Amino acid sequence: MKKTHIDGLESKEIPLKPQVAIKLIMEYFNDLDKLDNFKDYILVNDAGSHTTWVNLISEIYNKRIIFSGAMAPMGYGLPAACGASISQPNKKILLINGDGGFQMNIQELATISSNNLPILIIVLNNSQLGVIRQWEAFYNKDLRYSVDLENPDFVKLANAYGIEADSVSSREELKLAIKNLKLDKPYLLEVLIAEEDIPLVKS
Fold first, then answer.
1. Quick one: which of 9, 22, 68 has its CA closest to 44?
2. Which of 187, 177, 184, 197 is nearest to 21 (CA)?
3. Rounded distance, CA 122 to CA 111, Å?
4. Average pLDDT per run of 10 along the chain, which is 203 residues long?
């Protein structure tokens, strides 16, 4: 089987490269899958620049993903995770979201909280709409319009819905946070990541 080379996985830069954060998180869940008392998790992915990394890294672990495919509607991830959790109540749900897509259906935190759905929500926060920023620059290198986000405090926001949360910015903090995760209830983990370009499909 041909292996896909993924740049930057060993980077120790701060803020984290998104692929580093995704690899560490999926590595942890892959190890959990080997335990007898852990029933296979479901991986859900939203649309955004992180989608490229999730799809590539999931191939390392031969992991199937629930995501929106070529339609790529931002905001898909949170309600999809709710549906997956309700339909498969004995499985843990891992949702990987960008900060832009996460806020498009953020009201579903109420659904998650009121039903105590055991969903781990990963918010990769680079304070921007990354893919849109790249397309703007592709057509006009001086254009950067409405792509930089003034995000709320995601930890406080999750807490307001009664959901525990934490925020990390380094490999060490992320490793410690995922090691101490409580997977029997909702949890939000914000990971501060760097701005980074992904390959764009140009026609």
1. 68
2. 177
3. 17
4. 66 86 90 70 87 83 80 86 95 91 94 97 83 65 72 96 96 92 92 75 56
User: What is the model's pTM?
Assistant: 0.86
Reduced to 3 states (helix: H, G, I; strand: E, B; else coil), residue 68 is coil
Helices (H) and strands (E) in the chain, counts: 8, 6
Distances (CA, A) of 132 to 14, 124, 154, 192: 23, 16, 22, 19
Cα distances from 153 to residues 118, 133, 167, 193, 201, in angstroms, run: 22, 22, 10, 15, 33
CA-based radius of gyration for the chain: 16
Please tell me the distance from the alpha carbon of residue 178 to that of residue 180, in angstroms, as a whole number.
5
* Residue recorded with tokens 């959901």: 163
Exposed, middle or buried by CB within 10 Å (0-12, 13-18, 19+), for 146? exposed
